[in-house]
Amino acid sequence: MKQTMWTPLQAAECKVLGVDERAGHICSVKISHPQLKRPLWFTESQAGNFYWRSTGRESDAYAAAYIVKGELDGLTGAPRAYPELAGA
User: Fold this and answer.
1) What domain range includes position 12?
2) Parallel, antiparallel, or unpaired: how do β-strands 3-10 and 62-69 relate?
3) For 67, phi and psi rounded to 5 degrees?
4) How crowded is the C-beta side of 79, counted as CA atoms within 13 Å?
5) What is the 3-state secondary structure (H, E, C) of the chain?
6) Measured by CB atoms within 10 angstroms of the end CB, which terminus of the chain is less buried, N or C?
7) 27/35 Cα distance (integer angstroms)
8) How would you classify the pairing of strands 25-32 and 3-10?
9) Bigger pLDDT: 60 or 88?
10) What are phi and psi of 83, to 5 degrees?
11) Which of these, 55, 46, 43, 49, lies nearest to 3 by C-alpha position?
12) How high is the pLDDT of residue 64?
């Protein structure tokens, strides 16, 4: 199993571009941040914070990952990925 190298991102520097909400529960959020090359979809963990993780190639020794530190703003006004499922 690969060891994960976590890079923390401060929530105040994150911009929420989209939300994937199913049956009233937010499953993932699309986030842009100055440290990211492009916006990424972050998954909500059981602990309630958002993270993104990539294992990369099989030969890579470590998995790259980002974790959002703090409370994200903009979840309410962000566009929904599947608006027809938001109220399901």
Assistant:
1) 3-74
2) parallel
3) -135, 135
4) 4
5) CCEEEEEEEEHHHCEEEEEEEECCEEEEEEEECCCCCCCEEEEECCCCCEEEEECCCCCCCEEEEEEEECCCCCCCCCCECCHHHCCC
6) N
7) 23
8) unpaired
9) 60
10) -60, -25
11) 55
12) 87
Beta-carbon contacts of residue 80 (< 8 Å; ≥ 6 apart): 18, 19, 20, 21, 86
Number of domains in the chain: 1
Q: Indicate whether 20 belongs to any domain.
A: yes
Render pLDDT for 27-75 as a digit per residue (tens, 0 to 9). 889 999 999 999 999 998 888 889 999 888 888 888 889 999 988 886 6
Q: What tokens appear for 5 in the block?
A: 């190298």
Domain for residue 45, yes or no?
yes
Torsion of CA 44, 48, 72, 15, to 10 degrees: -20
Is 59 a member of any domain? yes
Please report whether residue 80 resides in a domain. Answer: no
The least confident of 20-24, 33-37, 84-88 is 84-88
